[in-house]
Amino acid sequence: MFRKHSIKAAVVAAIASVGLLAAAGASAQSQHDGSASRPLRVILVPADGGTEDGTKKDFQPIFDAISRATGLKFDIKVGQTYGAVMEAQCAGTADIAFYGPASYLPVHKKGCANLLALAVNHGQSVYYSGIFARADAGIEKITDLKGKRVALGDVNSTSSFAVPVAMMLQQGVDPARDAAAVNLAGSHANVLKALAEGVADAGGASFDSFEKAVNQKAIDPSRIKIVAKSAPIPYPPLAIHPGVPAAVQAKLRQAFENAHTLPGVTPDQIRGYGGAKVERYTTKVSEEEMAAAAKLFELVTADVKQAIVRKAGMR
Question: pLDDT tens for residues 18-54?
């Protein structure tokens, strides 16, 4: 059974994405340089329904190859929540972080992070969010979500919260006001599981997560329908703290650009969020392109988040 996040925990997470990073200006620790005594600290958002070891396993081959090629050392950890990863980078306890665009943008705005690399698949660095529903829930379009039970992921998630909520708001559906209930399930996999188990009528998740759940037979695609698909979203970035020495940053960018060609790396080892296979990584990305994605999230204000959190806390 799914339990709703406590109001206290969810409010903290929601506020973190829009302002609790005020301590960003003063890093708790100086950034590391990749030496054996001061390895670069990598913190990843928790994988979609996976374990901490599984999340690390997805990225370990690339970082191991880069370590062999450059001599840089890495200490890879997995954050408990998206908010925890955001706060770690602004506190100066993460040199490199992996999270979605909706998490990256406020951290970048605080001066805690710059783009390092994005995954490339099918020649593009984009992915898609969607609103999915049980086939028997009587939902054909977004406006049909009124009066239904809606599941969403982590409040700092791009494609299981920010984008699905924005799509609802654009169609005049306010989850806090119009949904019969909101379940903050915490992850894409949990959203889809809530649909499969009848705990929710509809929910927001990425199409990558949907395809993964189908392939793993976690959900029956004949019992789930696609209600809406988002516009392209920039792929979740690897971000680097600007305090990392410039020479180290340059070395990292060159290594990530060529990670798929490094000795000991096979195509199967080039993976992105949730362990999905990708073609390669690119460092030819611009802050302007990522900032343009903010238009996808501008409707999802702090007040909107907190109202949804309060709705999720109602019994």
Answer: 444 444 444 445 789 999 999 999 999 886 655 677 7
> What are the CA-CA distances from residue 237 to residues 87, 120, 128, 185 (Å)?
16, 11, 14, 23
Two structure tokens written together for 283: 């460092």
d(CA 58, CA 45): 12
Condensed to tens digits (0 to 9), the pLDDT of residues 277-303 reads 899 999 998 898 888 888 878 899 999
Query: Same structural domain for residues 92 and 134?
Result: no
pTM of the model: 0.84
Same domain, 93 and 136: no
In DSSP notation, 153-181 reads E-TT-IIIIIHHHHHHHHTT--HHHH-SE
In a domain, residue 250? The reply is yes
